[in-house]
Amino acid sequence: MELHQISGSIAFKFGHSPRHAVIRMTGTPEFNSRNRMFIAGMGFVGQVLAQDLKNQGWTVSGTCTSSIKKKKLEEERGFDIHLFDANQPDVTSTLEIIKDHTHLLVSIPPVPGIGGPILQNELRLRRALMGGNLQWICYLSSTSVYGDSGGAWVDEDYLPNPTSDVGRLRLAAEEGWLNLGQSLGISTKVFRLGGIYGPGRSAVDTIIKRGALSESQRMRGYRRFTSRVNVQDICQALKASICTSSSR
Fold first, then answer.
1. How many CB atoms lie within 10 A of CB 148?
2. I need a labelling partner for 224 at 20 to 30 A (CA). Which of 55, 100, 107, 134 fits?
3. What is the rounded CA–CA span in Å between residue 37 and residue 53?
4. What domains does the chain contain, in order, with CATH numbers?
5. Cross-strand pairs, 2
6. Are 141 and 190 in contact (CB under 8 A)?
7. Domain NAD-dependent epimerase/dehydratase, which positions (predicted)?
């Protein structure tokens, strides 16, 4: 099991990169074309990674929450998409699909009162994956698990201390996926991400579109430091993680 934090701004202090920090990787790793990725939560990161893998010969499937988005992703991007409602999670059909894949990326945030939607029926999940083809599981978490550091620098050695309900739910989901992976003998990773930006998604893009800044964007103006990471850097780190796991 491994835990990684990817965060651009947080990675530097007086010109020093913290141990194990993932900053940027170049080059294109080689992948086995028989690999099949299932992305639970085809959001911003999920779609970028899915396209990268598809371009390299992977079969990519995933979930989204609306019929309109499902149709768009299938017709315009060529992905195999399944509807999944995190607020009323019915994992039966989803598990049947996941177990036929070799890799699983979980990008669905926990829901208040529910927790990690796919983890809700852990016994059924364990049974399904035990007889499946999964080799790699990755859960995309958040730096919210660190809570309020009081201005101290946060790196991979900083102990989680969530002060919000969202952070506590994130940490519980991390532990759930890590424990599940360990019990099944599947290589399992957790990536704690800062604020994600990329093409079409930044404060500059919002200004260009003459849209209103989000609450998190407005709050950055009052902070001396912020934690941000580019979507392409996340995807490069994820692909490097897959290659590292497959080479062991």
1. 11
2. 107
3. 8
4. 2-246 (3.40.50.720)
5. 189
6. yes
7. 133-203
Residue from 173, 94, 96, 100 nearest 138 by CA? 173
Q: Which candidate, 3, 239, 19, places its Cα nearest to that of 11?
A: 19
DSSP 162-178: --SHHHHHHHHHHHHHH
What per-residue confidence (pLDDT) applies to 151?
A: 80
Taking the whole predicted model, whether its pTM rises above 0.85 is answered as no
Radius of gyration of the chain (CA): 18
pLDDT, tens digit, 9 for 90 and up, residues 201-229:
766 666 666 666 666 656 656 566 677 89
User: What is the reported pLDDT for 112?
Assistant: 93
Question: Which residue's structure tokens are 């849209």?
Answer: 211
Which residues fall within 8 angstroms of residue 136, CB to CB, at 6 or more apart? Answer: 102, 103, 104, 186, 187, 188, 189, 241, 242, 245, 246
DSSP string, 117-158: GGGTTHHHHHHHHHTS---EEEEEEEGGGG---TT----TTS
Per this entry, what is the length of the chain?
248
DSSP 160: P
